[in-house]
Amino acid sequence: MNFFRNLGLREKMFVLGAGIALLLMLLFTLVIDPMRASAARLDRQITAAQRDLQDLRTLQQDYRRQKGILDDINGQLKRQKSFSLFSRLEELAGQTGIRSSILYMKPAVNTPSDAYEEDSVEVRMEGVTLEQLTTYLYQIENSPQFMRIKRLYIKPRADNKQILSAIFRVSTFIPKAGTS
Asked: Where are the domains of the chain?
């Protein structure tokens, strides 16, 4: 402290001002700046968490919608009476007047599932118009029995573009025992 006493008033003011400036700089560097950086990091984390929460809410809504659809399908499958897919397809072909256009109907290989047994038939048709084909496919999809078109390949004939050939797979599903 002897050093400080030997200084003049101006020098004391200068040293005191430099000390205060150094103290303020240390305070800013060691306390305020880390607090601001931490607050900015927390703001970014809050923003990211809010985005994640919104994404989760969107996923939750999508899950509930998909679960509702699945529950409807399961209910429809449980209510439907057992039927022969071949017979039903032939019946619908007769109703739409295209039975003679069917070249073949054969069982198709199914993808295994833990919850359902799938019964599939591949159908090949030749010499049908677009209107006849769409009517038949509409009847299949909107039948009281749960049937879905899984694959569809349509090709116009080379000699007459109005006449089509079609190959498609029709599937129905039966819940396995013990699944809900």
From this structure: 2-77, 85-175
pTM reported for the whole predicted model: 0.59
Query: How is the chain split among helix, strand and coil, in percent rounded to 5?
Result: 55, 20, 20
Cα separation of 24 and 26, whole Å?
5
Report d(CA 175, CA 78) in Å as an integer. Answer: 7
Q: Domain 85-175: give its CATH superfamily.
A: Ribosomal protein S6/Translation elongation factor EF1B (3.30.70.60)
pLDDT at 142 over 70: yes
DSSP 3-state of 107:
strand
Q: Burial-class residue 25 by CB neighbours within 10 Å (0-12, 13-18, 19+).
A: exposed
State the Cα–Cα distance between residues 136 and 156, nearest whole angstrom: 17
Six token digits for residue 71:
């529950």
106 contacts: CB under 8 Å, gap ≥ 6: 121, 122
Three-class secondary structure of residue 5 per DSSP: helix
